[in-house]
Amino acid sequence: MSDIQIRTEGQAGRITLTRPKALNALTWDMCLATERALDAWAVDEGVKLIILDATGDRAFCAGGDIAEMYRTGKAGDLDYGRSFWRDEYRMNAKLAEYPKPIVSFLHGFVMGGGVGIGGHCSHRIVGETTQVSMPECGIGFVPDVGGTYTLARAPGRLGEYLGITAARMGPGDAIHAGFADRFHPEAVWPALKQALIDSGDVAALGEAPQAPDSPLAATQAEINALFGGETLRDVLNTLRASDSDLARDALKRLSRNSPLSMAVTLEMIHRLRTPGLDIRKALEMEYRVSHRIMDQGDFLEGIRAAIIDKDKSPNWRHALDSVPLVDVSKMLMPLGKDKLDFRERTMQIGFIGLGNMGAPMAANLAKAGHAVKGFDVAGTTAEGVTSVATAQEAAKGADVVITMLPNGAILKAVATEILPVMDKGAIHLDCSTVDVAAARAAADMAAEHGVEALDAPVSGGVGGAAGGTLTFMVGGSDAAFARALPLFEVMGQKAVHCGASGNGQAAKICNNMILGVTMIATCEAFALADKLGLSREAMYDVVSTSSGQSWSMTTYCPAPGVGPQSPSDNDYKPGFAADLMLKDLRLSQQAASEVDADTPLGQAAMDLYRRFVEEEDGAGRDFSAMLPRFETRGRS
């Protein structure tokens, strides 16, 4: 992408904004590209820190590219801007919460979106040309991209002053107000960047020179007095009662800005100024305004006057002294289902295998807003999923293709069919439970076609698939895992990266071997308790809080009417069928044989489930139906 340069140099990931003629204004694509790089580098052990900078002499970033928002908004398309802001705000949160150091070099104009991308990093460096501001009220908007987070934490009433006047901060002011951390003369910046690249250690920045004086610090007391009012009218009254130069200058600035935007900004800062403030709370509140600002605020009129027609004569909705408090409250009301949830951007997903597990998993992805095409040889469908006629049709153009298949042979056959039509760099995410060798063979096939592969078998049964509470055990590369993580978060409650390809399957079969063994032991113990005259309720109460407790006892109790609701309370209709447990136990013993591992209890569990399913009445029943089996049997 010509607007942004992303690369790795030495031990640093580097992001450089490259739109100097547009003052490096952020586009939607630039935000998404930045986020993808951050996700990949977060799990790349070779990248120790991130460097953020920009080309050109005039600006690090002078804001967001709002022309397209104006065009789409005037055409009645409010979703374009809302989607842009959702993705941008999620990126802002990632920058603030990033697990590795991010060093931003903030030269020239740093305004609006520039504060969002460079102002929440762990190490923010300013130089002699730096001019930071939040000018949004001048175009009928409010400080966003996490700007209210920094404003609410600024000393005294600086947040109110900076938020509604759009006053610019030089390097000393930016540090005093909390928008930057360190001052270094810009002549030494190339050497600092090289030292970071070579060392991968922020200690290479050394001691920061003394920052220039802060005029804001010198006027802090007066700003506190002038901007301590609760509402916009209170602030205006205080300013008008003062004859200071600062008050007169502030009044002049306020007279140009949107009254509604300034009133909302003050209310936001006041609400956020609490001990529990974090970046996400600020962004979520900002998004309430972003969601409404085009049709209920002054944003489109502000852009028209400042950017499109450039007449500098906006027709604001309210006069300076008459902003109804109810209008402020309406802008900040919770959004309900439209609330900012920080989920990843919509992906194109192919889903192959819409059985008892696959169908609800695919439906949850569609419900989360992803575009899902589904295929199943039996013709089954899933809610919200577009049905297609072939596996290849589901795979074409998909960012991620998810398979949920019966066995390793079918997995390899489907992989042979879909991999040739998948885009290079796409991900084949297999959630089937298959043998380790088949998983690794599918990964090798994917690599030959330039496709990333993840084996990610699940635990949690049909209930977990429907409720989005599955656990994923994942094998594959760090980068692919990071890209797929947002999907795991929709379909489940936990995803564990277990290492290289095949390790997800290894973790699954080891886990289910334990599960098979402990369920048999739990059923045996209940049957023994019955014959000893111990009530099942007493048995459960003791074991569930003692050393014998297990998931089989406390979460999936095989005794009807005891403990949480489970398949035993539904005549053992399967949540996890005994047939599937037998399959997993066979996989565990196949793997044990291949690596010469001694697993006598796993072997015994497999033998018991084989008899239960193939010779008795266990086929089609839940795997916890071992309990009625043991109830009717004596010691042999």
Automatic annotation (TrEMBL):
Domain 6-phosphogluconate dehydrogenase NADP-binding: from-to ranges: 348-499
CDD domains on file: crotonase-like
Pfam families to which the protein is assigned, alphabetical: ECH_2 (PF16113), NAD_binding_11 (PF14833), NAD_binding_2 (PF03446)
Record InterPro entries: 3-OH-isobutyrate_DH-rel_CS, 6-PGluconate_DH-like_C_sf, 6PGD_dom2, 6PGDH_NADP-bd, ClpP/crotonase-like_dom_sf, ECH_dom, HIBADH, HIBADH-like_NADP-bd
Enzyme class: oxidoreductase
Annotated GO MF terms: (3S)-3-hydroxyacyl-CoA dehydrogenase (NAD+) activity; 3-hydroxyisobutyrate dehydrogenase activity; NAD binding; NADP binding
Catalyzed reactions per annotation: 3-hydroxy-2-methylpropanoate + NAD(+) = 2-methyl-3-oxopropanoate + NADH + H(+); a (3S)-3-hydroxyacyl-CoA + NAD(+) = a 3-oxoacyl-CoA + NADH + H(+)
Kinase among keywords: no
NCBIfam families assigned to the protein according to its UniProt record, in alphabetical order: HIBADH, PRK05617.1
Record's protein name: 3-hydroxyisobutyrate dehydrogenase
